Amino acid sequence: MEFQDNYFESEVIEGFFVTSMMKRSWAAQLEILKDVDSICRMHSISYYADAGTLLGAVRHRGFIPWDDDLDICMMRDDYNRFIAVAEKELQKIAGGYCLRNIRTDDSYTELFTRIINSREINFKPDFLNKYHGCPYGMGIDLFVMDYVPSSAEESEFLYLVLNTIDDLIVSVLDGKVDGDKLVEQTGMIEEMLHVRIDYNRPWLNQMLRLEESLFSMYSGQEAEEITVMPLWIKNKQYKWQKSWYDRTESLKFDRFMVPVPAMYDCVLWKKFGDYMNNVKSAGMHDYPIFRKQETALVQAIGKNPYVYTFSEEDQKVLSKNTLKQRVKQFLKLIGNAHDQLKNRSKDIQETVDILTNYQEAAIMIGTLLEEKTGEGSQSVRSLENFCELIYRMHEAVLNQNKSEMEALLEMIKSQPELIESKIREEIELRYEVAFLPYHASLWEHLESIWEAAQSDRDCIAYVIPIPYFYKKPDGTAGELQNEINEFPHYVSVIRYDTFDFSSHDLDVIYIQNPYDEYDSAMSVHPFFYSPNLKQYACQLVYIPPYFVKEIDEKDERAVANIRYSCAVPGVIHADKVVVQSEKMRQIYIDILTDFAGGKMRAQWEEKILGMGSPKMDKRTEKKDLIHLPEQWMSVLKKQDGNLKKVLLYGTDISVLFHYEGKMLEKMKRVLELFWDNCEEIALIWIPFGRKNQIVEKKYEKIWAAYHELVTQYEKQGWGILGTSDHINEAIQLCDGYYGDRGYAAQACLDRMVPVMLQDVQY
């Protein structure tokens, strides 16, 4: 399976921050799924995307951004056939594959199978190449669907028996039952089911096997409904029509096409309710899925090469104290010398102390300027003259020569302006800032600050796109890249290799990449690592190049991912970090305090600024009509040439088969409404799943009527009929979305396009 290098970069997807290692783990799991799929095809075994993976395929066309695992399911017969051949076949593909279930591992306590690519962390080149740079053992979960008996009496009995066994297993796992009580309760189950438990063998494994045998008691002839039994035990309503899985369709899932039940809309409603509600549930494991392996890696070798470890030494890396900064401090010191001396003239000792301070500061600045501009320069001479006046003033004060003091005060009054003018002739005193973006696409997160700097006459702004490289699966550097030619034409950019950082007294350097070498996907050139940059500027400022939806501190998954972009070298070394909100500031402070220790909290409170994201509010973008199909143009434009409002209407064949005639009538009413308003509103109808359908006999009539409706709409020509290939263009064009749940609705929500979901009842 091929992935572009930039696939693995950290990014914000639908307002949720996804880390680079999460991307690599996704790719590794897709690689496992591809191998499982090949075995299923080879042996004519049916499987389906399940749970979050099914929801991801329908709503996101890939992983749900806050999900971290893959789930598939099979009917029991297919599952048994898969288990019989899978490990042997998988071993032919890659040596590390194995299955974990109650048949292969007596200590395993789950009633589903884990298909894993390795039982250990693996840095071998072949492993990293196959699994796209993810060294952690990854897997996918395989759940089994069994039949729920149609007989209410048999269903109730099965439910009670399974709950009895399951309650005992849970009590044992929780340490609440042992010894004589365990033997007694086990005996009751033995008597009820006419089985025998061998106490010389692992008790827990035998009980789990007993449960599994009960799961598969019934056949399709005895049932109309199916379920995943371990979940049915917890919720008796967790079951659905077996007919929903009679047909299979394929939906896009990232770079893969996954099989799904044709009636996936029904399945999703049953499992999730209104599945357009984005719920970040905790799931069945720690998040991220490789969290325990990260800890194990540190315990094994003392560090994790992908994760930065805090060092107090890093806090001792000081920013540059530039000549310009010292000159400005000196000019500020003497700026009100006249008034200060005049007000203190009656206090001899205090006046002498002030004069001594001026003299010492002038000598220090003069020495530094002499090194920069050479002996006898105008700026140095002006400071020598100032020192002479200060000395004479010192003598006049000691001698209480008032007339001399008054004359010298008038002469000192003009000195600050004169000294500044001479210094400005020889060195640059304007405020100098350098912006170091690496991706042109992320420039918008710095642009508003750059515009402010550009408009300030006392500021020089340099935009220096810095080079970066993507990392190969083994972590070594790929080809160096620079996007200098991709920045907006109105931004004057400087090649990084022509800018001499050591010859500039930079006041601020703004960075966007905080990871230095600790990112599994990419790295900027090492010259631009944060500790090195500190020697070239008075302040290093990090601006996160993303904007996420506001995070609730109780949202463990969102906070866990932000940690990977917060506890990093660029944040530690930066003098200031500007985050999108006060709420995000508190999250950063809490993460850094936990990361570096409680005694440093005050430092983070001073460093992290919740000033808002500098990302510019985008100007209203003109709709790009250049690459649209020609037949769309006549529909999109009014007679006067202006664009109509555009509405995207999305319908899904799975929903049609769910509601049948009611949904068909609903579609007709919608089309009639927009036909009446077609002079002002351009309708783009994309009926998902309208091609290559294998329709069961019971759906033939509704399918024929639906097909006739689509054909009639296309012939009339007042609206646009698109396909799933046009979905991205339609989403970019539309001013609103109406229709069924799914990817188009979710994509519009992500773009903040108004969305109204279709209700068959209205």
Keywords, separated by commas or semicolons:
six-stranded parallel β-sheet; seven-stranded mixed β-sheet; LicD/FKTN/FKRP nucleotidyltransferase domain-containing protein; elongated; alpha/beta; LPS_cholinephosphotransferase; 25 strands; Rossmann fold; 762 residues; 28 helices; LicD/FKTN/FKRP_NTP_transf; Four Helix Bundle (Hemerythrin (Met), subunit A)
Please, could you describe this protein's structure?
Strand 14 and strand 15 (about 475-480) form a beta hairpin. With about 750 residues, the protein is α/β, with parallel strands linked by helices. The protein is built from 28 helices and 25 strands. Helices cover about 45% and strands about 15% of the residues. The model is unreliable at about 615-620 (pLDDT under 50). The protein folds into four domains: about 5-150 and about 220-300, no CATH class; about 325-425, Up-down Bundle (Four Helix Bundle (Hemerythrin (Met), subunit A)), CATH 1.20.120; about 430-610, 3-Layer(aba) Sandwich (Rossmann fold), CATH 3.40.50; about 630-755, Rossmann fold (3-Layer(aba) Sandwich), CATH 3.40.50. Strands 3, 4, 5, 6, 7, 8 and 9 form a seven-stranded mixed β-sheet that branches.
